[in-house]
Amino acid sequence: MGLLDSFFDWLGFGKREVNVLVVGLDNSGKSSLLNYLRPRETQTDFIAPTVGFNLEHFVCKGLSFTAFDMSGQSRYRTLWGNYYRTTNGIIFVVDSSDKTRILVAREELQQLLSHPDISSRNIPIVFFANKMDIRDALSDVGVSSALGLDGVTNKSWHICSSNALKGEGVADGIEWLSSAIKSSLDQARR
Amino acid sequence: MPSNKREKSASRQYQEISGNTNENETDQTRPTTTTAATDTKSKWLSAHNDFVAGINTVGSCVELVDLYAEGSVNLVIADFGNILLMPKIQAKLKVFKEFSLLKENNLSDLPCAVVACYMDTLQPRIPALAVASGSAVFLFKSLRPYYKFVLPQMEIAQVEKDVWHKAREGNIDMRAMHDVLNDLHRGGTVPLTHRSLAFLQMTNTNEAHQFVEHYKTIELKRQSCITCMKKLNKNSADEDALNCLVIGTEDQHIYIIEAQAFTIMATMNCPATPSFLDVSGVYDVEFRILATCRNGYIYLFRRGSETPRNAIYLNSIAVGLERFGKNIIVGCMDSSLHCYTTKGKRYWKHLLPAQITAMCQIDYRPKGFQAVAVALANNEIHLYKDKFLVDVIQVEENIYAMKFGKLGREDATLVMITKNGGLLVKILKRTATFEESDTLHGPPKEQQVKIDVPKRTKLYVDQTLREKEQAENMYRIFQQDLIRLKLLTGKEFLKSVQAGLNPIAKTKNEAIRINAEVHGLGPRFKLTVKLQNTSSTSLTPIIDLFISFTYDENIYSLNPNYIEIPILITGIEYGFCTFVTCITDKVISDIIKVYVCRRDSSAPLISAVINMPVAEPNLSI
């Protein structure tokens, strides 16, 4: 079975469908990040604050991603919990230049990790320390310590600094996520 | 009402002040001590703790406003600087972005209020900052000095004018000048100018001479001081609509000033100097101004009237004023928190554990959460939702200023300035819920639940009507019956005492308790009579008593039926026995009465009635 699957993968058929959830505070750059992952011709220059959520599709490393671009405004944050059950991976975007609210991001992360649909499963999480181009932004290490990522032991996670407008660092994070999702799916099959 | 012309001359362009206002664009980042370990139970995230920020201010000088119309709210603080260095004034208008100082402007006098107001209709909506200090309001647009509004001048006594005029011409000596001004001051009809008051305070002749020389050529003015300032929407209730400024002054006036041309649109006469204002409504439609004054009153002003509509008397001087709809919440100097309606009815009063140091309103629209935060001298901040204490925040220092609102992009932040100049910022957690359960103050919540009272029936109404009409009659009948009952009881009691029928005999100095028991199944019973001398007053024993029985001789025979009682000593129980034989063969029973009698009296002392059991038949074998 596994041999046949990898053969199909290699051929490019039967791409496995995976769902990922894109979360983070408002104005952290979630929609911009997904906008960068779109094909060149459909990208937009103007990103408005998301209301509710948007769906985006992209392909990476033989996985077909369906990304739920959640709204980060505080009144919509309760919606995040509805999508935890079906998700295979989480993209957590942090505005590394907003030092006021890094604590709020940490609080939201704690809530996400303690949710019953998340805490029981090994879901890979990729953190984007976004807006690294802004002058006094925190580094990825700074964001990692501010979010208290050392305490996250039962999940595979990865952090990379990014600039969603220019696309720097975005591909790295998504590639890591694809491989992490693949390995977690393989693990689940065995 | 001062003329328009005078205002124009008083409010000159801000050119001359901007000379001494050096702008230093700073972009310094302080080391922040963000506490990583957040208390999971707390409803607040401690986002920023800087205990050495060196800010010295009060609540009215803190403002949260989106200064650049970019969706990120700045913190604006009018800082008093180091008060210990007075009279050198270090007051500064500081603008923070995130937690770092963005820009600061020097102020020429100690500020008393900062208000962000919209003074034009341009897009994007960029607000101006109005800083009230001394007798003027300084307006800053894009953080640059823009305009200075000066309060209208007040009347000066002609005598005082003449004195200074003579001083200018040099034909009055110091002593005469001092005497004239002193007489005027003692007379107290018209207050003197600050200049004359300062002159009168001088004791050194040389110093006074220099003072007069320096000031005699400058025009004599008398101006009031601003004590408080708030903003009022002019013609629309929108948040970014055009504003007017509402200013309370030391000379007991409240002015409403248009922020476009700086004309005084309305003047109100307050019976005392206002210390806090609260303004609601729209100027062109209807507005209300609440002013807490230094005489311990709250006055309510409305559109179109120069004098207050209502006055609420507080038992103490107010230290803070917040309003929620029609409820006024006032903190007082006697560490009490009151809630009044605008009509002056008091809903509740709480006595707080310590003095109030700062108050602010918490209005978190997304959750519909409205409360008042009261900072206390015991380093606690109490949050009151209606009358319920819903949260207590512990802080490390005394809080002297607080403001709740949007900061940066976060909706619910509480900015606090401590006594020693620290800047603290707390963020309300998204998941925080405030329950209206309060064990500290007032009755439990259940008491608020309305009882489902059934509808009044016709019978009930008739009955109440009858009770109303015949109240006197009913009362009289009731009293009559009560007295009759008492009389009957008394009579019966007397009768029983006289007949010795009760089990405890009580004469003047003798008290005997009787207790009779019947043993056995029959036909032969043993009857035990126990007597106890219970008199506690006298220790003299009772003598000369006997026991006798009355019974139906057809049914019972007693042996003996007469018992001599020996001496009865107080407290000891004596038992006397007799044997009762049932001599009838019918299955019946009867009573036997036991009498304890005194030898010299015919009436028994006490008696007891014994209900005899039915005797078993005599089994003769």
TrEMBL record, chain A:
Isomerase as UniProt keyword: no
Location of this chain's protein in the cell: Cell projection, Cilium membrane; Cytoplasm, Cytoskeleton, Cilium axoneme; Cytoplasm, Cytoskeleton, Cilium basal body
Nucleus keyword on record: no
Membrane topology value: Peripheral membrane protein
Biological process according to GO: cell projection organization
Alphabetical keyword list: Cell membrane, Cell projection, Cilium biogenesis/degradation, Cytoplasm, Cytoskeleton, GTP-binding, Lipoprotein, Magnesium, Membrane, Metal-binding, Myristate, Nucleotide-binding
MF GO annotations: GTP binding; GTPase activity; metal ion binding
Pfam families to which the protein is assigned, alphabetical: Arf
Binding residues for GTP: 24-31, 72, 130-133
Any one of the GO CC terms: axoneme
Segments crossing the lipid bilayer: none
Chain residues that bind Mg(2+): 31, 50
Family: Belongs to the small GTPase superfamily. Arf family.
Official protein name in the record: ADP-ribosylation factor-like protein 6
Species this protein is from: Adineta steineri
From TrEMBL, chain B:
Domain Bardet-Biedl syndrome 1 N-terminal: 44-302
Low complexity bias spans: 29-38
Sample GO molecular function, one term: patched binding
Record-linked PANTHER family: BARDET-BIEDL SYNDROME 1 PROTEIN (PTHR20870)
Chain spans, region Disordered: 1-38
Domain Bardet-Biedl syndrome 1 protein GAE: 512-616
Composition skew (Polar residues), residue ranges: 11-23
GO process terms (BP): non-motile cilium assembly; protein localization to cilium
Protein name: Bardet-Biedl syndrome 1
A Pfam family recorded for this sequence: GAE_BBS1
GO cellular component: axoneme; BBSome; centrosome
Chain intervals with Basic and acidic residues compositional bias: 1-10
